Amino acid sequence: MKLGQQALEALQAEITGRLNPGEDLVVAGEIGISGTLVLISREKEKLRKYFSESFLYMSEDTLQKCKVSREDDFWMDKRISALYFTKEGGILSGLWKMAEASGVGLDVDLRKIPIRQETIEVCERLDVDPYKLESEGTVLLGTGQGNALVRELDARGIHAAVIGHTDKGNDRLLHSGEITRYLERPRFHHSGKEKKHGKA
Predict the structure, then answer these.
(1) CA distance 88 to 132
(2) Pfam families attached here (predicted)?
(3) Which residue in 153, 161, 135, 157 sits closest to 25, CA to CA?
(4) CA 178, CA 74: separation in Å to the nearest integer?
(5) Half-sphere exposure of residue 135, counting CA atoms within 13 Å on the CB side?
């Protein structure tokens, strides 16, 4: 179902620039950092059954340092055609919003998306989908020079990866090994705000 004009304009206001067909999609920073920190804080008693106190403490400290800053002047680079600072709904929501706002299709390999082992382990224990986990501190961008930008981001100490590309079609495909599925539209409250995602 297509968004109405008003909803589309509101969505486009969240995105800096627009994606173009044939561009690389890049994720800068590991996904799910902010959501993992919330889970560790909220579910610490449950997580203590599986992890040591030192693991939980070190994970919180490490994850805090992994967040990407919005203030980095790198995001002004002219090679970046579209930019979105992910938040509620996680990386999958960010991908859908960017594609919908730009009117392009996507082809993404989930296995290429940067993610910390701490996030994977915490999400597995709590039965949470890490790709839908709140992801403040991660940047999703479109560019015609994905590999070059990734190298420069890595040189700045920011883990980044090309995770796929855009195309002229309407399909938004997610691959994980031999499994391929369509990217789903995020669920929204009647207020227009996105519903928080948790379990897969």
Answers:
(1) 8
(2) AIRS_C
(3) 161
(4) 35
(5) 31
Q: Give the 3-state secondary structure of residue 23.
A: coil
More confident residue, 186 or 94: 94
pLDDT tens digit sequence for 40-73: 999 999 999 999 999 999 999 999 888 899 999 9
Give the number of other Cβ atoms within 10 Å of residue 190's Cβ: 5
Q: Nearest to residue 36, comparing CAs of 65, 14, 15?
A: 65
**88-147 pLDDT tens trace:** 889 999 999 999 999 999 999 999 999 999 999 999 999 999 999 999 999 999 999 999
Which positions ≥6 away from 172 have C-beta within 8 Å? 95, 96, 99, 105, 106, 108, 182, 183
Nearest to 146 by CA among 20, 30, 16: 20
Cα angle vertex 188, ends 187, 191, to 5°? Answer: 170
d(CA 141, CA 146): 9
In 12-126 the beta strands, taken as DSSP E runs, fall at 16-17, 24-28, 80-85, 105-109
Which neighbouring-strand residues pair with 164? 25, 108
